[in-house]
Amino acid sequence: MNLGLRDIGFFLCVAETGSLSRAAELCEVGQPAISKAIRRLEVELGLTLLERHARGARLSSAGQHFLPVAKNLHAGHGEAQRLAGEMRAQRAGLLRIGVTDATRTSLLAPTLGPLIQNRPGLRVCLRVGRSDQLARAVQDGELDVALVPTYGDTSFTCEHTVIGFDPLLPVVRTAHPLARSVKVSLGDLQAYAWILSGSNGPPHRLLTALHKQHGLAAPTVMVETDYSAEAAVALLRHTDLLALLPQSLLRLAEQSDLHILPIAALKLPRQVLLLSRTGSTSPLMRAFAEQVRKYARVKA
Predict the structure, then answer these.
(1) Which one of 1, 32, 196, 273 has the fewest beta carbons within 10 angstroms of its own beta carbon?
(2) Model pTM above 0.70
(3) Which domains can be identified in the chain, with CATH numbers?
């Protein structure tokens, strides 16, 4: 049996309007095209689907029984088209991603790599910036998604999902005097200067508050950066400065020439969020989000 989907669509329109002429108008074809479509269906089925009368046409008993079948066939075709379109969109299109310096290093490559391998038509627009800048860009529709760290004191107006946890750890070079100490306290750090983000940055604020809580002077900042973890690592290797670095960076890079100071109070909690614009999603965005979650589960 060969039932044309276009013919079924014409039949459904006649069934809804009760008129061949009105159906032809809505389908933007001539009335003869509607009549021929109904006739083809009747011949194929061996049934009379319509009863014509002076005011138009109505479904015959056979037409009434065929109607739900026709609706299912038509809906199934529409669903197949939708799924095919979504699958094509997953393999191609533009994905605009925002990352911070830390999430670029720890999350972007291992999550974006599989998408690029499996989607030869994919194009990626990548922006590196601060968390607040990226959040605004997502909300304004300039970015599709963003991976940003948060310290629990930041609120975002766009949708956000917790991907994982990536605390900041106190780090020095292995040749640093403190690296040779078995036990190190927060007070022992007072003699050394820091590489830190600006005074408005969360790490700087948290560290200052921690010093105040323990009755210590505010940390001395010798190098202020807008935060480049790679620049901090390079400086640490050649100085006795201190820095707070993401655990993921240290794990990923396996920095044998760096030493994590065993000070529990300086393990600053930090979440990593996936941001997306409220009410806006696409197959590519969902595929990227799933890949990020999958990688985060493996690393947990």
Answers:
(1) 1
(2) no
(3) 5-88 (1.10.10.10), 89-166+271-299 (3.40.190.10), 168-266 (3.40.190.290)
